[in-house]
Design goal:
about 350 residues, alpha/beta, Rossmann fold, SH3 type barrels, Elongation Factor Tu (Ef-tu), domain 3, 3 domains, six-stranded antiparallel β-barrel, 17 strands
Length: about 350
Amino acid sequence: MRIAVLLSGGVDSSMALELLHRSGAHDLTAFYLKIWLEEELSFLGDCPWEEDLRYARACCQRLGVPLEIVPLQAEYLEQVVEPALAELRAGHTPSPDLLCNRRIKFGAFLERVGAEFASVATGHYARREPGPAGWLLRRSPDRVKDQTYFLARLRQEQLARACFPLGEYTKAHVRRLAAEWGLPTAARPDSQGICFLGRIRYRDFVRFHLGERTGEIRHARSGRLLGHHRGYWFYTIGQRFGLGLGGGPWYVVAKDIDANVLRVAHRDDHSARGCPEFLIDDVHWISGPPSRRLLEVKLRHGPELAPCELAPADETRYRVKLSQPDLGVAPGQYAVLYDGEICLGSGLIVAALPE
């Protein structure tokens, strides 16, 4: 079986390649997707794609696996970056990594290779298994590293061709094996931040595209003027750092886009401003809608699942009621829904609902 292995130059994807190669059962070709915006944004900081590519080549050379470079910058700019910028302009909090997996790694790339390869393997910490209505997406045993959150927009035909060699592994096990087997990437640190930025600072990237627009920071309860900001698009609901206010900590609790005003709350009353319920749209079920109302939800990548109740709001939208209010619910985020170990799918948060 021919398998395309996506290499990023990190330890996870190189271990996925190593495991498949050691199984001896596959015809492997590695691919490096060139999606960094290095030419356009090189003046903002170091873009690591050349270094990543050197590591990817070293991993392939030791195994005798061919490596091809696939340029997808145009697709990435159109299908991931521009939608993320549109969300920021609207005052929302985008989730570009979810779009990347659906539209690029298992989208544009799959379209590029067509039927030549049976599967596309990645270094994601996730599992898939057959279910009664198609393939199911199951959480990784490594709860901290589990990446089903980022895969929650995959369609059935994409999941059917996905291969996750690290599905049963923990990160600690991967690091240990990488050192034992002498992988060139064994000691490389994990990448951080949004996938297309590399080492470019997120704030610099946003400033380059959206500029600055000075506005007021006001106390949410009293309306008192506390300071000024340089653009609401630099902030998200629940954010604490970067406000430049004394006597804190202060947290962003609301944005008035028309007036270009950030509203903040002090730690003393911040906890009382959690969101108990919100509305989701653009709902995607991986293998059909759930049969139960009582589920779990992730609002951001992390190990914890929050109990919730799901109820239809109209023909396309659902209400998600949390067992405990959350302080960081922001329009533009994806709410990823689970039934125990199974990732069911996701919906785009469009509004917080009053109690």
